Amino acid sequence: MIGLLGLVAGLGLLIWLALRDVNIIFASVICALVVIVTNALPLAESLTGSYLSGDLGAFTFAGRFFLLFAAGAMFGRIMGESHAATSVAMAMVKAMGKDRILWITVLACALLTYGGVVVFVVIFAMYPLGLRLLKEADIPKRLFCGAAALGAGTFTLTALPGTPSIHNVIPTLKLGTDLFAAPLLGIFGGVLMFALGMAYLERERVKARANGEGFEAGPRDVIPDLNEIARDIPPWPLAILPLALVIATILAPRLLGGADSDNAVIAFANSQPVIWPSFALLMASIVALIIFPAVRRKPLQILGEGTQDAIMPLMATSAVIGFGGVVAQTGGFELFTQTVLGLDLPPMMSMFAAASTVSGITGSSSGGLQIFMATLADDYLALGIAPEELHRLVAMASGGLDSLPHCGAVIAMLTITQLTHKQAYKDVGVVTVVVPIIATLATIVLAMAI
Description:
Number of helices: 25
Number of domains: 1
Structural class: mainly alpha
Largest sheet: none
Distance between the termini: 44 Å
Shape: globular
Order of helices and strands: HHHHHHHHHHHHHHHHHHHHHHHHH
Radius of gyration: 21 Å
């Protein structure tokens, strides 16, 4: 009983500390110690093994995915410093009009993240332009948060096949699948997330206008002139080239030969689910350095800064996973897994419940996904779920309850936009929690029917 109470206390403390913007690495160590002591786990072995170097250890995860995080962060830094990300958004403004700011934000963020730009860079790149357009359209800033979260943090990370996101890579290591696993299910779920999210955001926009709610700048917001934003940015066909190169490079092995190809390069690409997307991002970064004058003058500095950008997101995610590695050693977690597996539900629904809960506990979709793959994937494969379907559905399931208020990405976005949970979390919560859950359940129903 004490162990179970300690487990609940450790989880609750992690959420409480995250909500108070306490450094998540520090918080994970403190909460891991709470779980270790209350469950009478061996202190040294749990810290150096379960937390740091075990199958779910922080350093194990960091070592496995460092190249992908670093390549993504370097690419994101280049796309930001070169103003290519702004160019893509500006092209959408010209095509759709300033009044369609919510659509522009969602589509621009989706395009950038599907092309490999990390979420935080996308929000930083979109925010100045978003402020200008929000002011002109007199749309509440809270809806920008919802739109950015929908475009950058939902269907492009977990649902759409081919995305180089960490959420799409993790299942490949366990299941032997590729980044395009169960493409029809992914497209169905992704389209549904987009449609439901946009319907909600447009309804809120209309309600806000009817209620007289408009744009209010934050105390540190600097609203630029559109002419200043447009200055020194590359033409959009050139700006979009590196994004297209990332997607084409990832897609090429599948189109040119598939898993059974005798070509050495294609065989290598299909056997390296972390290295190949990292290579695609690195190659696109080199091309971008060549074609964009703004970054051509200091390429090594920008690449170094991009690598530095990867450190904190990687370590924060790794720390949460290390905490999960400690939790996974407790009797309480074993009881949880037995309970979920014993539920009188179809295996896919049981899988959804397990993945969602673990992601909600950790406040991290990638953390929850890694823990699920290490502790539960074999059980659900044994229950008859095909590896490709498990890949896509568990990735989608991890992207729901992970965005509860203690989620680090949510806290970071609210900090960037100078809004509080009270002001903006309702919109973010609907599009990143409610909408993905509905879409994932609908996709599961479709998978069970075909």
